[in-house]
Write a structure and sequence with these properties.
mainly alpha; Inner membrane-spanning protein YciB; two-stranded antiparallel sheet; membrane; YciB
Amino acid sequence: MTESRKNNSWLKPALEFGPLVLFFVVFMRFRDRTFTLGGTEYTGFIVATLVFIPVLVLSTLALWRLTGRLSPMQIATLVLVVVFGGLSVWLNDPKFFKMKPTIIYLIFAGLLGLSLILRRNWLELVMSEALPMTAEGWRVLSGRMTVLFLGLAGANEIVWRTMSETAWVNFKTFGLTIIMVVFFVLNAKLFERHALPKDAD
């Protein structure tokens, strides 16, 4: 393995998860403090959001430079973070940033649901390199992920509306990631059953 490949093996996940980890660290460090800028008081949550937005922009640009492309989810996440995170900072209201995951998950649930209705494997276009499967496998996975995204959207709404900011930050940083990992682990049999035969090469 070349040196560049070794670097890419850790650099890509660092760029993908680094901004979220930084948001968590900044929030936990300043969650009990307020900052006055221009005569307006800002909570630690707003400060963490203010740090998160430019870092995510820079890391996404670095990912694009590193890999040569961005997935639809990365692009949608970047746009919604800039829009809703920007609104939270501009209006000094955390709820806009907290609503962002709900909107992302509803968008993807809608797209996957539409792909099933139109009998198109849009999910395959995004994930085929990582998970080579038959058309039937992609159809089943699309249906399951539609339900998953709807569930995550509902869970995010419940958490941010009924629990503390710390609970929501923990849910966003760790809970959502763990749920996604568990989902793919539970679907291991599906991937195995519908896997395409590997090339001789």
